[in-house]
Amino acid sequence: MGLNPLFQEDFFLTVQNSYHAVEEIQTHPFYLVSIKGKVYVNLLPISATFSPQQLISLQAVYAQKGILLVHLWEDIWTNKRAQVLSRIHSFCGLNQSLHGRKGKILEVNAEVTKSFLEQYHLQGYIKTKYNFGLLFNGEIKAVACFAASRPMKSKGAHYKSAELVRFATENGITIVGGLGKLISHFLALVSVNDLMTYADRDWSLGKGYDKLGFKSSGNTDPVIFYVDTKTMTRHYAHRLPKKIMAAYEAQNVLNLDSFLASVDLVKIFNTGNLKYHFYTNVQ
């Protein structure tokens, strides 16, 4: 697969073919594309040398103008094209709307959950204790995944918290009230004092959680990744392939970043997460 120096052009032509009202806002130092005036996309090749703070500041400038700006890295476009285009479709307000009150909730197993998230969520599957689907006419159109509750002794002897880990809908679908319905279902089953979640700062300003009654509780730090330039596979810094780490430890010439670059692993990052809490009435 390898490096794609033309990925920005590929993205521009792809969305132009679908939405027509596509405009280059700037090409240097950032390559920004406006789609229907609804969302701006900052296209980042994996060779980019920006810092996380530069991207956070850029997003903040546009947020002050009431514009959502998202950061799209080359590896995500390469491996998650359908999911990226689905998010853009949603940002442009072009999704088909379903009403959550008409959906039926059921618990779904790990296999079904994994298949759905790998197909429709940008970050894919992660194992969780509770997985619920929202069905319309017998078909799953959304999945929400929750972690087990855990005690938070720092907040009180009997205080418990849980996490909304994933929420995804089928491409092209917006379910009005769907996430709220799934959250209410979970909270009726599991008694907690709060439900926390994260919004991917590369892709969100967190407005959806604000509307659901979540309260902002801070930001997490940017996360470092290493991308294999041959496959565009993204690795967390603390989960690098064992063979590569063994080879690094067997030599004593290069530092980690230099060694990884020598084996075609390029260092990139995200801009962290926005953290939210929904506080229940549980005493």
How would you summarize this macromolecular structure in one to three sentences?
The protein has 283 residues and is an alpha+beta fold. It has nine helices and 17 strands.
CATH class term of the domain at 98-192:
Alpha Beta
Identify low-pLDDT runs: none
Please report the total strand number as a whole number: 17
Any idea what the CATH architecture of the domain at 98-192 is?
3-Layer(aba) Sandwich
Instruction: Determine the mean pLDDT.
Output: 95
Could you estimate the helical fraction of the residues in percent?
25-40%
Q: What is the CATH topology of the domain at 98-192? A: Aminopeptidase
What is the H level of CATH, i.e. the homologous superfamily of the domain at 98-192?
A: Gcn5-related N-acetyltransferase (GNAT)
Structural class: alpha+beta
- Summarize the helix and strand pattern as letters: HEEEHEHHEEHEEEEEHEHEEEHHEE
Walk me through the structure.
Helix content is 30%, strand content 33%. With 283 residues, the protein is of the alpha+beta class. Strands 6, 7, 8, 9, 10, 12, 13 and 17 form an 8-stranded mixed beta sheet that branches. The chain starts with 6 loop residues before the first helix and ends with a strand. The mean pLDDT is 95.
